[in-house]
Design a protein that fits this description.
Length: 207
Amino acid sequence: MSDKPYAPATERNKHAILGVIREEFRDCTSILEIGSGTGQHAVHFAAELGHLTWQTSDVQENHPGILAWLRDAALTNTYDPLVLDVLTARIPDEKYDGVFAANTAHIMPFEAVERMFSLTAAVLNNSGVFILYGPFRMGGQFNTPSNAAFHDSLRQQNPEMGIRHLEDLDRLAAAVGMRRVRLYAMPANNHIAVWIKQRPGANHDNA
């Protein structure tokens, strides 16, 4: 359908991301996607991972595009998008085994990133999995000059945007009872970070 929104980067990265989430979500049954964007990821992943139910979400303005992709795919394991702005969202009553977000942290104010981690921890079952895809800084450094340039371009658009320090994200995760267990290098200078919600009383160091 020509009226569906289309993000070329999403089309390029979906296969590499699928390879990771197929493994990380292997024991999950219910996934919340924060920031479904065009809806391309949702239909691709749900089609390939039939053991999962995939709950889309985003701000209201992106819902028509997501719904266009969902209607076209006609999958039985995807759900129409929730209205979700992490800064104002009410914590859903539903619990999930996994949460997925792609290319969100660097386009949000840091306050929204913090809220995303809090929201994720609140909706995850114990031992639930949070997967975040995107560019990160590590050890105070950008992994490539192109990511440094990308960070500068984001800051020029909005000083509150920018590529986040992975150590800051680990700190946000720890504050809400999650710890990072894996980090995957991905194409186009991106990474996937995986955090697990710890059971009450668990005490582990970050990966």
